[in-house]
Design brief:
This protein is of the alpha+beta class. Helix content is 36%, strand content 30%. Helix 3 (116-130) packs across helix 4 (136-147).
Amino acid sequence: MIYRVRHVTRYDYQTPVNLGAHLAHLRPRALPHQRVLRAGVHAAPAVSWRRDGSDHFGNDVTWLFLDVAHAAFQVIADATGVEAPWIVYGLVSREPSGTDSRPGVSPEAEKANRHLTWTLFEVWRFFHEEGIEPNWGEVVSFVHHIAAAAKDSPDDAHAKEAIARKLEAERAGLREDLEKVRKKRLNPKNPEFGS
């Protein structure tokens, strides 16, 4: 699903003020289950100085400063984001028909990929538990790799079981590879130790 969000904050002063300093947390944060396509913060009157950045927790922040007299101040935040199932399933049509919600998803695509949403959350949990910080492309690629294990499953229960087995096999392989790297680092003169 595509989300389009618009937020307006407006201040009207009884008498004009000469200075204004504002800290805004109005841009959405990219998360494992959503991707931010566009985000903007606009002010009226135009600000004298602006700085975009992030806070200690990784949230987007915007600092806005005005050094001109103004009787009102308005901040508008617009954002467009995508929920993970929409990225995975896609639309029935790529035409800009205005339908970008999950009901607009092809029934064939949804049926073929019905386990991708569940798999996405399991993969993200896997990455988190293993201390891996992948980018979005790596997450989507790995989700498709893992979900392929459920391709020939006769029902949902068997599909989820196949996906869980594939994830555990990947976890075991990852840990085995990390153990080999650890042993090589600890025994640089004998790289074959423990192989």
